[in-house]
From TrEMBL:
Gene source species: Methylomonas methanica (strain DSM 25384 / MC09)
Domain of life where this protein originates: Bacteria
Protein name: Oxalate:formate antiporter
UniProt keywords, alphabetically: Membrane, Transmembrane, Transmembrane helix
Residue intervals passing through the bilayer: 12-31
Keyword Transmembrane: yes
Amino acid sequence: MMPNHKQKSGSIIWLVLFWLYVALPLLWGVASTLKKALALFN
């Protein structure tokens, strides 16, 4: 990591986009798994 203050705000935006790209499919998978589990229990 180079101490470059000009790119700091841009890199934060990319970091947020990356985490959304990673977290949304995981949350989607967890939600669908929970729906399947609830359907099995009901």
